[in-house]
Amino acid sequence: MFVSYKWLQEYVDLSGVTPAELAGKITKSGIEVEGVEVLNEGIKGVVVGHVLEREQHPNADKLNKCLVDTGAGEPVQIICGAPNVDKGQKVAVATVGAVLPGNFKIKRAKLRGEESNGMICSLQELGIESKLIAKEYSEGIYVFPNDTEVGQDALEQLNRDDQILELGLTPNRSDCLSMLGVAYEVAAILGREVKLPEPLVETTSEIASDFIEVQVDAKEDNPLYVAKVVKNVKVGPSPVWMQARLMAAGIRPHNNVVDITNYILLEYGQPLHAFDYDRLGSKQILVRRANDGEVIVTLDDAKRELTSEHLLITNGTEPIALAGVMGGANSEVQPDTKNVIIESAYFKGATVRKASKDHGLRSEASARFEKGVDPNRVRAAAERAVQLLAQYAGGEVLEGSVEADALQVEPAVVSVTLEKINRVLGTELTMKEVEAIFARLQFETNTDNDTITVTVPTRRGDITIEEDLIEEVGRLFGYDNLASTLPVGSSTPGHLSQYQNKRRLVRRYLEGAGLYQAVTYSLTNEAKATQYALEERKPVQLAMPMSEDRSLLRLSIVPQLLEVLKYNSARQNDSLAVYETGAVFLSNGEEELPEEREHLAGAVTGLWHSHPWQGEKKPVDFYVVKGILEGLFEKLGLTDKIEFRQAQKDGMHPGRTAEVLLSGNSVGFAGQIHPTVEKELDLKETYTFELSLKAVLEEEVSPLQYESIPRFPSITRDIALVADQGTAAGELKGIIKEAGGKLLKDVHVFDLYEGERMEPGKKSLAFSLKYFDPERTLTDEDVTKAHDKVLEAVKEKAGAVLRG
Amino acid sequence: MQERLKELQTEALEKISTAADLKELNDIRVSYLGKKGPITEVLKGMGKLSAEERPKMGALANEVRDRIAAGIEEKQKHLEEAAVQEKLAAEKIDVTLPGRPVKTGNHHPLTRIIEEIEDLFIGMGYTVAEGPEVEKDYYNFEALNLPKGHPARDMQDSFYITEDILLRTHTSPVQARTMEKHEGKGPVKIICPGKVYRRDNDDATHSHQFMQIEGLVVDENIRMTDLKGTLEIFAKKMFGDDREIRLRPSFFPFTEPSVEMDISCKICGGKGCSVCKGTGWIEILGAGMVHPNVLEMAGFDSKKYTGFAFGMGPERIAMLKYGVDDIRHFYTNDVRFLKQFSIHE
Ligand SMILES: [Zn+2]
Questions:
Q1: Which residues fall inside 5 Å of ion ligand 1, going by CB?
Q2: Of the candidates A389, A396, A404, A379, which has an alpha carbon nearest to the alpha carbon of residue A206?
Q3: Under CATH, to which class is A203-405 assigned?
C-alpha cells in the first residue's frame, strides 16, 4: 500500500510529524514502512507555462517551435518534439536552469538552428512511471486544465510536492489497504483523532429502485450487494489532484467515473464497479454462480471460460462481470456513457481468490476482496462514490440504493484479563494504561475488575482472540519499552544427543583428514536420483516440479558430490576432496512419509598429496580412501566390526570397489568411479564412498574401559606366504587370526610382492604376527606352538605356503 | 741436553699450532711422544749425567712431555669443534622453502553458523531437535495454525509430493512434533536446525533449498520479555556486543504477538546506508509468542503454558556476517569459496 502523506493529512492531523518520523513510528508499532519516496526529489524549476504560439520547426518535421509564457518576463521560444503540443495549452515547462530526475540540467540550446529556452515536459520526464500515465498523455507532454494559473510550480499543481510511504502489509493487516484504515492506525500511534469523510449527497426525486432490480442467488458468496444509480454523468478527465493521488498509489487514471471508483477503493478499501446502465441490456442485476462452460468477455477483451466455482454478476441472463475480479466488456463505461450503476458489494474472499487465481487476474480489487473488506463500509463507500460522481462528473444521484442484504455483521467481542496481558508481555501495566491504548485504537471497551472486554470494530477482522488484544497492547505500548529477561523456572540441561555428538566428530575427523564439507541439493533428476544408491528403491517424486533437474529426491549423495568435483575441476581445481552428510530419501509408498536416512559420502579426485620441490606427488588411490574410512571407524570404535569386501557396483570400477560391512551387514561402498564416468565428467582418477551414517553412528559400541598397559614383552614373528593371485589379503589375515588363538594379538600385512621372481599366478604376502600373554613372559616354545597352527591353517584353507 | 729438550718443546708446540687437521695432530703426537720419539732419544743420553742432575733432567723431560701433550689436547679440542662447525655449516637448509603440506579441509560456512548457534543455545539449556525434511501437511501447516485455504500458505509456495505430503517449508514442524512428544508437559527448550524447501527460482537472493534454525521454549510463565532477553543475547553473541536490537510487530500464523528482530547496521552504525536500505536496521529473524492454537493442537493447555519461538536463516546470517553476496555460493561448493571459512577469528 502506497500512502500519500498529504492525503493522509485529510484524516489525521500530522502536524509536527515529518514523513520520515511517521514512517519510523509506523514501523515500530506494527507495519513495516519499506520506503519513503519523495515525489519531487531531484526536480527544480518546473513551472506551468502557456503555449502562446506553435508552428512547425523550419528544419525538422517532427519538431515544433513554441512561444511559451512562463509567467516570468517575456515569453520564450521552446522547441518541443511532442506530437500533442499545441497553441493554448497549459503545460509543464522546465525553464533554463531547471533540474529534472537523474540530475538532468536544462540549458539554453539550439535545436536544428532554432533557439530553445527550456523544455516542455511529459510526465515521464517528471519522474512518473509510464504505466501510470493516462493514455492520452502517455505518448506526449502533459496538458493541465485550462484554468491552471501560469507561473505556478508545476509539481505542486500535479500534487507531486508529496511523500509516499510504502507500507509492507502482513496478511493480517489488510485493514490498512485503505487510507481510512491507515488513518485509524496512525491516529492510534500518534494518539490523535480520525476525521472521516462525511458524504453529503443531493439526490433527485427519482428513485433508484425504479431503475434497477437486484437479486442475489449466491448469498453465501455475496451476502451484501448495494447498487446506486447516477444519471447524466459527463465522462471526462478526473481532477488533477485525484489523478495525482491515483498515480502516487500506483493506479493509472482513465476517466472520472473509473477514477472515482478507484479513488474509493483507495480511500475506503472497498472495490467498486461502475456499469453503463444503458448497456446493461436489462433492468436487472442477478448475482449467481456461473454455469460450467459459460463464457464472459472481460473488459480486457479476453474470452474467459468459467466453471460453477466462479461468481458472476449478470443482467438476469448474460454475464456482465466476473464478481470482484473484472467487469465485462459489454457493460463497460465508455466516453459516451450517460447513466451509471455503482456496485458496492461484499464478496467472499475465497470465491474471489478462486476466480482471480484461475484466470490469472490479480488486481487491487481482487486483493482486497480476498483479504476481506470491512462489511460496515460497503454502503458508506457507495455513498462517497456517488457524492464524487455528482461533484466531479456532473452526475445526478438517484434517491436510495437497491440492495440485496443477507449479511450478518457481528463485531467480535473479546475479553482478556489484565493479569494475562502482563503475564504474556512481562509488563506491569495498569488497567488504566490498557484502557488508554484501546481508546487510541477507537475500540469500545468495558472493564469489570481485572477483565477488559473489547468490542472490535469490523474493520479489524484480524482480532478474534485474547492474544490478538495482547498484541495490540504490546505493540502500542512499544516493544522498545519491554524489559529484557530470561526464562525462569525449572532449568534444563542443554546438550547434543549422542548421535549429534558423533556426527560432529565424524565431520571434524574428515575435515582434519583433508576433506571439505559440501552442502548440495536434495532434489535432483531421474538419472542421478538412483545412481550409486545403497538400496534399490523407487525415488520420491515431486507432484509439480519446477524443472526436470529438480524433480526427485536423492537416494545417494555421490552424484551430487561428483557434480561438485566437476564444477571445481572445470575451474582449475582438479585435485580436491569433499564430503557431505545429509539425508537420502527412501520411498515407503505413495501415502507414507519416506524413510529419511542420513548418509555420509565423500569424493576425492586428482592428487592426494603434492609436494613438488621434494619430488613428492601422489594421486589418490583406493587405499587413500580406505585409510580415511579405517581411521574413521577406529575413532568410532568399530574397527573390529568392519570388513571391506570386493564388490561390483554400477558406475564403479569393477576391480576397484569394495562393499563395506558393519557386523556383517552392508552399510556402504568405497572405490574408484568407473573410468567412463570419469571421462563423462572430465575428471581425473576419482574415488568415492558412501555409507549409511545412521547405521554407523547407531551401532552399539561397548563403553570405554581402560586396559592395563602390558607388563610382559611380546614376541613378533614375520612370515612371507606364497598364495594364489586371487587370494585376498583380508582372507589370509582372517585365517591367521582365527588359527593364532588367544596369544596372537595383532596381525598386519607389511609386504606384497607380485614380480617376476614369483611363479606365474602366485604372489607373496608378508605378515607380521605379534604374540603376547598379559600374564607372563612368553617362551619361544609357546609361540612356536601357536605359530605352527597358523602355518598349517593357511596351507589347508588357502593353499598358502611359507616362501622358500 | 736441557737446551735440546727446550728446543724440542718449542718445535713441537709450533708444529701443533699449525696443524691443519686431526691426522696431522696425531702424527705430531706419535713423532714427539712416541717411544721412538726425540724426547726418548734425548733421555737415552741421561746416563752421562751426574746423579744429582739426573732427576732434575727427568723432571724437565716429563714437564716437556706434559706441555706437548697438553698442547696437543687443546689443539685437538679446537680441531674437533671446527670439524663439527664445518659439518653443521654444510647442513644448512633454506627454511623459506615450503613445508610438506598437511591436508586440511573445513566445514561448510552454513554448518559453522548453525553449530555456533546450537552451541550458544545449548549453553542456555536447549537441546537440538531434528525432524523429517519430507513432512505431512498436518505438521508443516495445520498444526501451526495454517489450515487448508489459509492465505498465508501462499507466502511459502511449496513442493508437494502428494496432497498431504510435501517438502517442509520451514523447520517449524519439528517444533510441533517435539511439543506433541512432550504430551502437554513443559518445559520444552529446543533449537531446530535443518534444510527447508520452497518453490523459488534460484537467484542471488533465492534458493529452492535453504537452511533454517528455529528455537522454541514452552513452559509456565514464559513472557515476551524472555524472548527479548534471549534474542538480545543471541544477537550480541553472533554479531558483536556493540549491536542494538529492536523488535518490530509483525505477523506469523503460528505466533501471537509476532515480531521481527532487527539489529543495528554495522556498516553505518545506524545512520542509514545502502546495506540497511537507509533505515539503520537489518532484519535478522522472526519470532513471537506461540499461538494458543499451536499449543492446544500439540496438547498443551494454553491457559497454563505460554511459549516463545524464533526462526532465522543461516544463509542470511552468513551473508551478513561474512559479506557473501550470492546465496547460490552456499550450494555450488566452489572450493575457492569453501576454503575461506577455515579461518577462525
Ligand atoms: Zn547501514
A1: B 265, 267-268, 273, 275-276
A2: A396
A3: alpha beta
Q: Where does the pLDDT of residue B154 fall: very low under 50, low under 70, confident under 90, or very high at 90 and above?
A: low
Return the C-alpha cell found at A290: 456461473
Contact yes or no for A45/A99 (Cβ under 8 A): yes
**A624 shares contact with chain B (CB less than 8 Å):** no
Q: Which residues fall within 8 angstroms of residue A516, CB to CB, at 6 or more apart?
A: A576, A577, A578, A579, B105, B106, B108, B333, B335, B338, B339
CB pairs under 8 A between A and B: 252
Question: Does residue B278 share a domain with residue B174?
Answer: yes
- The three-state secondary structure class of B33 is helix
pLDDT of amino acid A285:
95
Number of H helices, E strands in chain B: 12, 9
* CATH topology (fold) of A2-39+163-190: Phenylalanyl-tRNA Synthetase; Chain B, domain 1 (3.30.56)
* Other CB atoms within 10 Å distance of the CB of residue A663: 13
Sequence-distant (≥ 6) Cβ neighbours of residue A263 within 8 angstroms: A238, A242, A245, A246, A388
How near does any CA of chain A get to the CA of B311, in Å? Answer: 17
3-state secondary structure of B13: helix
Q: What architecture (CATH level 2) is domain A44-157?
A: Beta Barrel (2.40)
The complex scores an ipTM of 0.87
pLDDT of residue A642: 94
CA distance A592 to A594: 6
- Map residue A788 onto helix, strand or coil: helix
Q: Which amino acid does the sequence have at A434?
A: V
Residue B56 falls inside a structural domain: yes
Contact A343, A272 (CB under 8 A): yes
For A486, the closest of B122, B229, B257 (CB atoms) is: B229
State the number of CA atoms in the 13 A half-sphere of B186 facing the CB.
23
Helix (H, G, I), strand (E, B) or coil at B23: helix
Contacts of A560 in chain B (CB under 8 A): none
How many Å is the maximal CA-CA distance in chain A? 131
Task: Work out the pLDDT band at B309, boundaries 50, 70, 90.
Answer: very high
Identify the pLDDT of residue B151: 66
Q: Are residues A324 and A345 in contact, defined by beta-carbon separation less than 8 angstroms?
A: yes
> Which pLDDT value is given to residue A332?
93
**With an 8 Å Cβ cutoff, are B197 and A487 in contact?**
no
Give me A625's grid cell. Answer: 580412501
Tell me if chain B has a CB within 8 Å of the CB of A309: no
Q: What is the pLDDT of residue B44?
A: 78
Question: Which residue of chain B is at minimal alpha-carbon distance from A563?
Answer: B332
Task: Give just the sign of the alpha carbon dihedral A279, A281, A285, A290.
Answer: negative
Find, among B257, B250, B255, B249, the residue nearest to B295 by Cα.
B255
Subunit contact A489:B219, Cβ cutoff 8 A? yes
Question: Within a domain: residue B261?
Answer: yes
Q: Is the bond preceding residue B187 a cis peptide, omega within 30 degrees?
A: yes
Superfamily assignment of A498-698 in CATH? Answer: Bira Bifunctional Protein; Domain 2 (3.30.930.10)
pLDDT under 50: residue ranges of chain A: none
**φ, ψ for residue B105 (rounded to 5)?**
-110, -175
CATH code for position B316 = 3.30.930.10
**Mean pLDDT over each residue of chain B, to the nearest integer:** 90
- The neighbour count for residue B20, using CB atoms within 10 Å, is 8
Q: Using CB atoms within 10 A of its CB, is residue A234 exposed (0-12), middle (13-18) or buried (19+)?
A: middle
Contacts of B222 in chain A (CB under 8 A): 487
Residues A228 and A209: their CA atoms lie apart, in Å, by 9
Helix (H) or strand (E) holding B75: helix B53-90
Decide if A519 and B259 are in contact by the 8 Å CB cutoff.
Answer: no
